[in-house]
Specification:
Strand content: 5-15%
Number of helices: 3
Helix content: 40-55%
Structural class: mainly alpha
Distance between the termini: 27 Å
Order of helices and strands: EHHHE
Shape: globular
Amino acid sequence: MQVMPKDKPKLRLVGENGNAFAILARARKALKRAGRSSDVEAFTKEATSGSYDHLLVTCMEWFDVDPDEDE
């Protein structure tokens, strides 16, 4: 598992209603907005290497998951 920097981009997961593709797209967009486009491929590979629960855990490792953060 890759250790991520402490300055995690914010990511809002609430409102996606269990849609893994929407969560993945939102996370990739958040990385790009945070100037971390070079991390998109590594994040995507890790996030899609398991179940839906693994996707959520990966998001929580890579992002500051904030229900109040706007898209």
